[in-house]
Amino acid sequence: GSRRRRRLPPSFPRAQTSGRTTMEQPFQPSAPQAIYGIQIADPTLARLTKRVMCLAAAAAVFAVISGIVNLTVNTSGASGISGAGVRVGSVVVGVGLALLVPACGYFGAKNEDSNLACCFCGLNCFGSFCNGCNIVLAVVGYMGVKTLLDNCDYSDPTGSCPATWDWSTACAKIAGHENDTGRQCFAFYEDLADKMKNGLPFVVGLTLPTLLLQCCSFAYGSKFYNHLKNRSATPAVPVLYATQAIPGQPALRPDQVH
Length: 258
Prior knowledge:
Strand content: 5-15%
Helix content: 55-70%
Strand order of the largest sheet: 1-4
Low-confidence stretches: 15-28, 236-241
Shape: elongated
Radius of gyration: 36 Å
Number of helices: 5
Distance between the termini: 31 Å
């Protein structure tokens, strides 16, 4: 009898018998991007690397500018060559230490080093916290001295000054003012308040941009570090292949076989 053909289920793909065969070809990877001379194939990593390196360069430039400004301000009132030399040395050392943070970010991004990226992220987090505290302390300190002078005017003992406050002993623990009288101590605090008021815009104007830059560096440094860690923890993905139909030779009939 005649054989019955076995029907395949609809979900089962039928073989193509039109005389065409298929050949497997691997997908071509995306072309790597050049980020400041570094070839990076991962588009996410390339974007984060560019941002981290830009932030590191901006932090380095700002550290040098801050050092120059501090050097100008600190040496203007220095007494003698030795005093100026000490202050110059301290500013140079401070700038050198400040440049270590952007160096961690730059070389961490360039070499895809997660340890340097972690240092860049953590140090910027700590630096932003310290700079935020500096701004708060500068503002609170000035407001405290100003409130003290307003409420405890030496020429007006009937003000709202606390009964325990005495200008004659207020400067007893301040170096160079241990023997000041009440009027001299009050004058010292007035001069201190003027200096704090004049220096407050400088402190805030110089510290606030650094704070914002460090916050941005911490945010993108954290993303860069997490991307490196996740990429190293992800198992390798097998290579996918695409099939492309190519013309094949027709089958031989029995009478053509020799």
